[in-house]
Amino acid sequence: MTEFDAADDARRLSPEGDVGAMLTPLSASGAGVRALMVRKLADIVVLPSGRISSNERSLVADILLQVLDKVEPDLRAEVARRVARVSECPPALVRMLMLDEPAVAEKILGGAESLPAALLIEAAREGAMAHRMAIARRIDMTTAIADACLSFEEMDVCKQVLRQEDCELSPAAVNKLVALSAVNKDIQSLLLRRRELEPAHGFIMFWWVDGERRRRILTRFSLDRSTVQDALADLYPRVFRGGDNDSVVKEILILAERRHRPRGVNGEPVSMDIVKRTLAAACKYPSQEVIDAVAMIGGVSRDLAGRIVRDAGGEPLAVLCKSLGVPRDEFYDFYARAADVDEAEAKAEKLLAIFDSMARDFSRAVLRYWDWDTNPRIAHITRLMTKVQDEIGLRPISDADAFDPQEFDDAAGLNLD
Question: At how many degrees (to 10) do helices 129-136 and 102-109 cross?
């Protein structure tokens, strides 16, 4: 062997001879061999596509899968940060890093410009709340990813998803958020700004939002039923006078009726004077008998009538009075004649503004929505609300202002005839 060959072998066998060829050189700090190997493998994984084939990259990723969970979180976070910049990284390695502890997963969930939707959905479903928060902040969130993030009903995640205005929410997601809004005011304000919200959602939320949001709901979801009424006009005589008594069609025709006429116990027309006296009595003494009378003249269920007259805000009664054609001055007097004159007049003024802002047909449509328990979507949201009540301990809204008949000695004896 020549002196040249011996020198060449010595250089080849010494660590110092390889330093120039290494992507990650040996450190003088004494790093462990396991950490050095992970860094060297990461160097290979992040090589440009022209330097390594997809099969070779997958091989290196498979090796990393075996060793990454055996190194410190800081090193895994370093690898995740580097992998986040490589779009060609094998999905198996990306998945492992995305489902790692939050400090590691954040590097790739927050740093990668593009990640496969399937992996994001899987990370949302299998990860912790911190993973879902990181995913919900991504600008490339899709409808399916949002559904996965919302599936755990975590309030902070829900609020973050709602802030993503460029992501369209699915109907199921909106229904769930409407139910959750009953227990979180932040969700209410964010949800009311969403374009996906429809009248059914708004009129359900009406019962647990404050006065300002109630006014926004009535303004935003104002509607005119004349097109529907004109299209169905020829069916009224066939169903109500012609003997074609289809119960499904009859229910829809009642729902779309142009104007409600107050009726008494035996179906006889009721004068406006009796209507006003009944509503005035309801404002003062909401006994069960008075509530039943309100339901009868208003053409609504007893449950809805009770909710309307017991509501502390007064906006539902403004809707009912408008639908019945109560004169505005009479409606104002229902509230302005209370004991605390200044406070009563201020409240009467606010409610009168709502009363004046509504068309009579629209107020009737709102009542129908409130009383539309057979509608599949409304029934579904009601079931979701029941689930929220069971899980979070929410008190049923209809019981929020429960009335004790014993408070009023003679309330049940009012003469409304």
Answer: 20
